[in-house]
Amino acid sequence: MANNPIVVDPILIDAPVNTILRSFVDLPDGPRVVHAVSVGSPEQVHYTYDMDNAMIIQLWRGGFLNATPMWHSRGDGASLPLGTVQRFGKPVLSLARLSSPQAAWLSDTAGTSYRPKGYVIDDQESPAFRYLCYGSLVSDFTKAMENGRGISRVISVANPTKDLYFRLAEAASIEEISNGMYLIDDKSYYLRLDNAGGSKPILRDLNGRKELIIPAGTSLSYSILF
Asked: What's the pTM value of the predicted model, to 2 decimals?
């Protein structure tokens, strides 16, 4: 007699208000992110932040999370995004001190004195992640746009050190289509610089890939549209 498969009712998490859930996240063909924070919004635009690398690792539109792997039976601690997902590659630290604008991006946090400092919540229940990097305190605030077109981000750095850069994007293709507007991976998403703080972005080629970086001043704001 064939065994009957066990049918499990999915455990789905909605985000009727700004909602935060910490879990593991398994990236396709990549590592398990063990300090992941997923942030949902009523605009149905959601993202996951990797606190070990101060990086948004995925962004999606639609439902918020499937927590069945996390909470069913003994669970494995992981949650799954619901909807169409845009991922941003291998987790790496978003800030780096480079010897020149063409120096390779750092592959890990060694030598950066990186220390996550958790997050603080505003009156709309949106988190601003905080961390120390190269001795500077960084505030990393992201929120969903009201029209649901994407997310807007504000990065604030207290007393930025010399030769400090922020990586805006890494992809197979990045094309500037107008002043401050970039097309990423053949219309996968758009990146719009809203306030560069007087810094000039640098589009560069490294190992057959494209990177968009910018000197890190005290404040930077940009949007991801998808």
From this structure: 0.92
